[in-house]
Amino acid sequence: MHAGSTQSASIIAVRPASLASVRAKMYGRPLTEEQIGGIVSDLAAGHYTDVETAAFLVATAHRNLSMREVVALTRALAATGRTLSWPGRHPVDKHCVGGLPGNRTTPIIVAIAASLGVTMPKTSSRAITSAAGTADVMATMAPVDLDEAKVRQVVERTNGCVIWGGAIGMAPADDRLVRIERQLDINMPVHIVASVLAKKMASGASSVLVDIPVGPSAKLRTREDAEVMAEMFYCVANELGMAIRAVFTDGTQPIGRGIGPALEARDVLAVLRRAPDAPVALRERAIRLAASVLVLSDPGMTELGARRLAAEALASGRAGARFEAICEAQGGMREPPVARHTRTLLAKENGTVTAMKCRELARLAKLAGAPDIPEAGVFLLVGVGDRVHRGQPLLEVHATSEAMLDHAVAYASSRDDLLSIDCRQDAAA
């Protein structure tokens, strides 16, 4: 036998047996809990190549998994790593399904909830297909790579934290799936549900709030799509014995002004520090979602009462002080970095801003260097409904090099639909 043949035989011999289950799913066959567990165990152990991992993602995409299989996948992902528990506490967690740039409510919500006595050990992810994940944003203000002992210390001192779950080793098989999803630029509903709830199980959360933005360029484009995902969350969470609440929110435009880790962090701090120019929509959405967290923590609380408490915690400075305490406990608070280079894009005509393409704005921020370069991204100067005149600044592109700035601006200049401006509305006015 030739050396090449021997080598090929050796490679074939070490392929994980669970790949047979992946092939079965490619042909539409249902998988047992044991088969799914075998696949996830091999993923966690690093036995799958990137191509084999991608094959699993594609085979289980869209609606190729039954609800029973999604539950089994969630349990298997949670079981592959470390898990936390919080005896004597009722920890609440929160997740946004994404697709909406600048929607950085989580640090504000954690600060509000923790300041009101709610235990909220928030484990967050890095960006998958977006220009920033919550962990990327938080990392510009405080350390997020904490070990289990440090996380417990922070929560005991402050009631909350905002950390990267991967540092603890929670659901490592899911981290491998996320890495390939990021390379493929995909994030399917079944994977979102299994990934989110597996991480929440591992973090010890007993209740979870899920924010589902809905809009024409968000991840969930129609109310019908959002309701399908919400139903999946409810069904899987019920099987896992976890209380859950799904909230549909406006996904038609970015909520804050910044898109990119540092720029989004600056929006968060503006709200928490009660700055006069803080993004109003970000503040209001954070209050609304924080109220839902409070109701999950205390089902006897009314929605109106919860909103009043959340708003007061923010307005009084109590939430801002608690956020600073959380940052200090995680290793020290710092100010987000500032990009060395910026360029402003101007309106080409008079009119009214009628729409924003969320995906394209996120792509522009990524072309500028986000999320890998924290200070890179896009800063919006107008919103939907604003009247603008020719030559008026619409947005700023932030980058750390002229070359990346040129590349991003060239892309923006080639697109006329990042911000839709209707001249007729202006003329009618």
From TrEMBL:
Superkingdom assignment: Bacteria
Glycosyltransferase listed as a keyword: yes
Class in the EC hierarchy, top level: transferase
UniProt catalytic activity: thymidine + phosphate = 2-deoxy-alpha-D-ribose 1-phosphate + thymine
Residues of the Pyrimidine nucleoside phosphorylase C-terminal domain: 352-419
Matching Gene3D superfamilies: 1.20.970.50, Nucleoside phosphorylase/phosphoribosyltransferase catalytic domain (3.40.1030.10), Pyrimidine nucleoside phosphorylase-like, C-terminal domain (3.90.1170.30)
EC code: 2.4.2.4
A GO term, aspect molecular function: thymidine phosphorylase activity
Keyword line: Glycosyltransferase, Transferase
Protein name as catalogued: thymidine phosphorylase
Organism: Luteibacter jiangsuensis
